[in-house]
Design goal:
Number of helices: 4
Structural class: alpha+beta
Strand order of the largest sheet: 1-2
Shape: globular
Largest sheet: 2 strands, antiparallel
Radius of gyration: 14 Å
Order of helices and strands: HHEEEHHE
Distance between the termini: 32 Å
Strand content: 5-15%
Length: 103
Amino acid sequence: MNEDVREIRQEDMLFIYDEDFKHIRPAINRVFPLTDPRSGEELEAFDPCWDNPIVKKVWAVVLSELEQVKVAEPELRVFLDSLTVWIRNVLESADGIEITGNL
């Protein structure tokens, strides 16, 4: 096994329904265009049908924005806080997180 590639564990994956993703998508959309860290290809916009690799330093921007989102619903704040904690935990041992579209 390549030492640069870490096995992906179940706890490293997260499924977010589109109904919930709509609350974080604006923060994700604002960090594009990005460069794919593996291929060097320019990613013009978030692709809901394909892979969207986002490197650690870009996630810092997304996290900052998610933490500042004003919400009226307590459940939404709990969701956003839980998500940011999950992202931070994964990024402790990863160089980035890939969002894979499912549409």
